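Hi support team,

I've been running sequence recovery on a batch of backbones for a student project. Most finish fine, but this one hangs at about 90% for roughly twenty minutes before it completes. I'm not sure whether the input is malformed or the queue is just slow. I've pasted the structure tokens below so you can try to reproduce it. Let me know if you need the job ID as well.

Thanks,
M.K.
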């Protein structure tokens, strides 16, 4: 067949597609919308020939990932106040609960003397909690009380204390156990907590200026600063009528936990402050006190064989014995590598002195 006799075919569909193709190529491209992954990731996806496939894969991964839990907003706690009457005394009960109101930040200028006041109060005041410790303090030094917190159950037991506080215009609060735990800083608050003035500390030199025929003292320097042990020693001293404890660190005895363990013993024992332990022992030797040191040495003298004088100092720390001092072992039959707890040792020594 000749070329001239060949039939001609129109290409309407092809021409339309070419038109579309040409329009598509000539039309300026719109700027791409990059995601939040950053400019570097956007360029990599733009140059990649399979970016659409990667989009599908990322969508599938996002669908498989567990949904994030919504972030919980911090709760706003509000103090609720109610009033009641106990034994004719008006009592304000405070408790802490969750509030729907937005928290409002308190603003206002502080007094220029506020830091000095806070520092002074912290040096002169302490917290005491525990039923027996607080009742003993109210019996011995009611004027030292600054503020009282108590639960409703305890408030029914201390009506006399609340009457005294109301008459002397002192602050007291009836709160729930959770609030009292925050105030006292302990779970073992016993239903009551007090903010009080610290007990007066005497100097050892001033104490020795008064002559005494019979006297028993404990030397606590060098003892581990464990409030449980210190509280046990104070309780034992009060139990046996020992009035003085010598130390160069009186703040250890003013610990709230030590006062709780002492069960009120802190109110019956005088704290005798010394500059340091060695100088204190030197002064006590000059005043005629018998110094007794504890030891684990099997060659040491037994406590039962030692004759105790009327004026005596039991040193509950090792390493300060000098010539003329007595060194004793509480038990020569002890098979253990360690001795007794220091509070228990103090109890053994004081019981021996009382029965001398």
């Amino acid at each position: 067949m000749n070329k001239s006799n060949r039939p001609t075919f129109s290409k309407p569909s092809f021409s339309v597609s070419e038109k579309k193709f040409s329009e598509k190529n000539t039309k300026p491209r719109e700027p791409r919308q990059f995601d939040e992954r950053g400019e570097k990731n956007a360029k990599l996806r733009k140059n990649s020939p399979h970016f659409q496939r990667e989009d599908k894969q990322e969508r599938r991964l996002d669908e498989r990932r567990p949904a994030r839990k919504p972030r919980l907003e911090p709760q706003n706690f509000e103090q609720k106040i109610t009033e009641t009457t106990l034994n004719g005394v008006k009592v304000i009960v405070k408790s802490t609960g969750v509030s729907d109101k937005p928290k409002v930040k308190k603003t206002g200028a502080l007094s220029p003397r506020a830091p000095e006041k806070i520092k002074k109060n912290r040096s002169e005041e302490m917290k005491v909690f525990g039923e027996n410790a607080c009742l003993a303090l109210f019996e011995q030094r009611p004027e030292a009380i600054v503020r009282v917190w108590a639960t409703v159950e305890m408030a029914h037991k201390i009506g006399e204390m609340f009457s005294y506080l109301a008459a002397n215009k002192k602050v007291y609060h009836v709160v729930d156990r959770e609030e009292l735990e925050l105030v006292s800083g302990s779970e073992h608050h016993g239903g009551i907590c007090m903010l009080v003035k610290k007990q007066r500390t005497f100097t050892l030199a001033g104490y020795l200026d008064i002559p005494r025929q019979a006297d028993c003292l404990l030397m606590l320097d060098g003892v581990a600063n464990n409030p449980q042990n210190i509280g046990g020693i104070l309780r034992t001293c009060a139990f046996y009528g020992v009035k003085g404890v010598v130390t160069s660190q009186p703040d250890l005895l003013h610990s709230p936990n030590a006062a709780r363990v002492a069960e009120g013993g802190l109110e019956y024992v005088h704290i005798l402050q010394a500059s340091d332990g060695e100088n204190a022992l030197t002064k006590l030797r000059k005043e005629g006190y018998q110094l007794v040191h504890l030891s684990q040495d099997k060659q040491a003298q037994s406590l039962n064989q030692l004759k105790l004088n009327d004026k005596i100092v039991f040193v509950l720390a090792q390493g300060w014995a000098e010539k003329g001092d007595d060194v004793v072992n509480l038990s020569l039959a002890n098979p253990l590598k360690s001795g007794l707890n220091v509070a228990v040792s103090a109890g053994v020594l004081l019981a021996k002195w009382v029965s001398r």
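--
Follow-up from support: It reproduced on our side and the slowdown came from queue contention, not your input. Residues 14-24 have pLDDT under 50 and may be disordered. No action needed from you.
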